[in-house]
Amino acid sequence: MKERNTAQSLSAAMRRTPNMRVFFINGWYDICTQIGILYYTLDHSDLPRERVFVKGYPAGHMTYLGEDNIQAVADD
């Protein structure tokens, strides 16, 4: 069996589910899961880009901390 990475599994799920959309949120100051790696992964994947949304926030790894970030994520 061929090994798959997460992007390949997500792509397969999105192909099976035409109305599925994905929203990636990332903190600008996150040193664990850097936003640049996310863009690199998306650029090298076959995810349907019209249904993939990316947004960076002025936060570290836990973008959900702080009232401003909570509201910003909720608004997006």
What global shape is seen? globular
How many DSSP H or I helices?
3
Helix content: 25-40%
Main sheet summary: 2 strands, parallel
Give the number of DSSP strands. 2
Gap between N and C termini: 39 Å
Low-pLDDT stretches: none
| Helical/strand content category | alpha+beta
- Overall mean pLDDT stands at 91
**In what order do the strands lie side by side in the largest sheet?**
1-2
Radius of gyration: 14 Å
**Count of spatially separate domains:** 1
β content, as a range?
15-25%
> What is the H-and-E element order?
HEHEH
Concise account of the structure shown:
The protein is of the alpha+beta class and 76 residues long. The protein is built from 3 helices and 2 strands; from the N terminus they run H-E-H-E-H.
Q: How would you portray this structure in words?
A:
The chain is built from three helices and two strands. By secondary structure, the protein is an alpha+beta fold. Strands 1-2 form a two-stranded parallel sheet. Strand 1, helix 2 and strand 2 form a beta-alpha-beta unit. It is globular, with a radius of gyration of 14 Å. The termini are far apart. The relative contact order is 0.21.
